[in-house]
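In this supplementary section we document a worked example of the pipeline. Step one takes a protein sequence of length 841 as its only input; no multiple sequence alignment statistics are reported here. Step two produces a three-dimensional model, which step three serialises into structure tokens for compact storage. The input and output of this example are shown verbatim.
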Amino acid sequence: MRAVLMAGGSGTRLRPLTCELPKPMVPILNRPIAEHIINLLKRNNITEIITTLHYLPDVIQDYFQDGSDFGVKMKYSVEEDQPLGTAGSVKNIAELLDDTFLVISGDSITDFDLNAAIEFHKSKQSKATIILTRVQNPIDFGVVITDKEQRIQRFLEKPSTSEVFSDTVNIGTYILEPEVLQYIKENEESDFSQDLFPLLLAENEPIYGYIAEGYWCDVGHLEVYREAQYDALHGKVKLDFAYEEKKQGLWVGSNTYIDATAKIQSPTMIGHNCRIGPNVIIEGETIIGDNVTIGGGTQIKRSIIWNGVMIGEEAQLTACTIARGTRIERRAQVAEAAVIGQLSTVGEEAQINNGVRVWPSKRIESGAILNINLIWGSTAQRNLFGQRGVSGLANIDITPEFAVKLGAAYGSTLKPGSMVMVSRDQRSVSRMVSRSIIGGLMSVGVHIQNLQATAIPIARTMTSRLGVVGGIHVRIHPDRPDFLLIEFFDSKGINLSKAKEKKIEGAYFKEDLRRVGIQDIGIISYPANILDTYRNTFEAKLNVEAVRNSSSKIVIDYVYGVSGAILPDFLTKFGCDAVVLNASLRQAALSTQERETLLYQLGQVVEALKGNLGVQVSANGEQFILVDEGGIPIRGEQLTALMVNTILTANPRGTIVVPVHASSAVEQIVRRHDGKIKRTKANPTALMEASQSIPNVVLGGSGDMGFIFPYLHPGFDAMFSIAKLLEMLTIQERSLAQIRAVLPKICHKSTTVRCPWKIKGALMRNFIETHSTEDLELIDGVKIISHHNDNWVLILPDAGEPLVHLYANSEDREWVEQSLKSYRQQVQQFIEQEQGTIISV
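The serialised model returned by step three reads:
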């Protein structure tokens, strides 16, 4: 007799276990479900098996091949295009089925007596016999009702509660005569339960139900998957075990080492070639696959661990499922019902909370706390906030459901009834996310002042004027066009301090979210006259007459990311000729190459129009690149120096605030003007706070981040910077090219090295210990300085990525090149040395 093993299912409800594995290959007691089915067929003297495949067919074929290693003969039928359904796939192999045959599902565990069912089928001279079983809750199955002779009278697929008329259900195993296949159309999708059997019933063909005794479990979802394993360990189902039973309830494979101090309770299964370290505690109902390593002091309770898993010291696993090749690092915790997909990594002291599912090949960073499923993104970070707010891949990391929870977490750190301002750029994805954040805020009783699509400098200006306790702005990330950036302001419009960010992170990760009654849900308001308020503030801080008398011609490129048409209106009002390029909105942010092309075109337009200058505005109104009258771009460190020179010429003895990595050209310019300089950490919050708190600051920021005029508002503002530059150029009667010609000639270069998170601290300590204290500045990272000149090297760990940035600064280009090369080698050698130490431990 031949059997048809139906193994084409994808097992959607078992994901992430089935993301890269067909459902019949999911292991029960370290053997695939399909192998247990084959063993059942073999025990019932059925050794010729035809397997129908669709989802990831190569995995099954590679494992079983011709079946000889399993004591059977196997053939395969692969549905290449679209699935034909249970009956259609059997019709597809009709020429191989010329006698009574059995169809069996490849995704359930059972020990039914198939020979008894076959004898019943033959005794009744049935054309089709459905093997049935009784279950307590038949809602998820096809219900079948039979008469006293066991002839089937009625079918009902997955009934509702009110429709349940029997507890006898179809388990997906049938005994059929070849002639019933004539009722199935070729190459059309057809199902046994929904199509063939009702048709046989209507044709009055003899169709019977055989109620089997024994164990049956449809491994339909993750909870049932674990329960089936526990049942098998306790002997509730007859399965062939792959390992020797060393003592009652303890099965151990060959070449497995268990330390004498380890404590293992029964029932437990441990596979071949495993290593169980000292003081490990393994509680009963645990299944451990082949080639698994478990570090000392680890505690495992009722967990399913697949082949090739590595578990570090002192980890804690409770009733979870860990798929093939996953690495659980030292002191990590995986809670009940969590599932980690294959080839993932759970970092040191990371915590995976109850019921969380992690898709394959993901990395949970050290110390991260994961409360939600990690599906599309590649990494779960231990911190929400990076260098400048919360960022991630748009609609992958930063999703509507993430944004709702983030809004609720922020709102939960505020008093009920507080007012928060929310704004965004003009893109649809930012609108989606900002609305989700608003929903989260309202749910915790926070009221909203919704500025909608607004340039971020305008939002910062309005924060203090609206009397809100804080603000949120959502936009495309200035440096990564596929990322979103969510920034949080305080009541002054300054980015939140690290302490307040930690409070939001704590509420988010601990899910310490407040919920209010219907009467206390937040209210949304839409402030009026926003542009007028900003325009008046802008105009009050500008020498309007100087700009008006300049008769300047300026070309403004908005690079399809409209940040408001305020500046051209101003300039026109003040008598300037403003030519605007690319001011329409494009939903997808431009790539770096596209922006460079537009910058080149901007230079050509400035030259052709004989303009005074051109400017490319980006980052939703925060950042800009200048183009001089000759069409040559001015950006980065050169832009920083030019702005400092221009502003200090008008404000001698003023104070300048720049990030720690800005070039020493700034110091030289400040010395020329008898001014002062304050260097801060390399993040926007530090620059904003210093610009507000230090007396007599006339300019803050840098060419890469934007510029701050603290008397206007506390944030970066490209629009005001351009207007102020026009004012200065008019008063000083200079052009951009003339100013650039007198700037200090400084060589300033940088490079980046990848550095694992766990090594960053040791790397910084190494540089501090190997250099004299007098030669160090520790504002941010480690800066190695020379007291004889402005030469320095800065080793700066990245706040949001496993990277270290190296900067070198000098008037001597050769010194910069040699220093960068030398320190890069030192960093790489140290990382390699530390990684070797970690591996050897």
